């Protein structure tokens, strides 16, 4: 599990990835986590299977290596856990969920 402190420090760690798996409409309502890449959960498997060049063109960042730290966030943690499990199934060895997700982030930013 990823912690609030780890997520807050992501902008200082370009080698780590923070994926927000909420839908675009949710992001418009609430805002986004700093340095996060939005890939809705329904599109995640396809995105993580893209060739490196296509991933970089689509998301503006190099595709994560299989051993890269990948943190997944959503609204309350459920989809983030499913996303981390999916990434692990696809062979990514350092995938983890931010259990508090947007709900905790927003509460601690106030």
TrEMBL record:
<dbReference type="InterPro" id="IPR001307">
    <property type="entry name" value="Thiosulphate_STrfase_CS"/>
</dbReference>
<keyword id="KW-0808">Transferase</keyword>
<dbReference type="GO" id="GO:0004792">
    <property type="term" value="F:thiosulfate-cyanide sulfurtransferase activity"/>
</dbReference>
<feature type="domain" description="Rhodanese">
    <location>
        <begin position="12"/>
        <end position="110"/>
    </location>
</feature>
<dbReference type="InterPro" id="IPR036873">
    <property type="entry name" value="Rhodanese-like_dom_sf"/>
</dbReference>
<dbReference type="Pfam" id="PF00581">
    <property type="entry name" value="Rhodanese"/>
</dbReference>
<dbReference type="InterPro" id="IPR001763">
    <property type="entry name" value="Rhodanese-like_dom"/>
</dbReference>
<protein>
    <recommendedName>
        <fullName>Sulfurtransferase</fullName>
    </recommendedName>
</protein>
């Amino acid at each position: 599990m990823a912690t609030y402190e780890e997520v807050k420090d992501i902008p200082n760690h370009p080698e780590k990835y923070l994926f927000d798996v909420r839908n675009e409409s949710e992001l418009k309502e609430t805002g986004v986590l700093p340095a996060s890449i939005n890939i809705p959960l329904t599109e995640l498997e396809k995105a993580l299977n893209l060739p490196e060049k296509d991933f970089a063109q689509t998301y503006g960042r190099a595709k994560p290596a299989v051993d890269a730290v990948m943190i997944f966030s959503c609204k309350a943690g459920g989809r983030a856990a499913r996303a981390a499990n999916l990434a692990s199934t696809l062979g990514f060895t350092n995938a983890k969920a931010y259990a508090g997700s947007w709900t905790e982030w927003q509460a601690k930013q106030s």
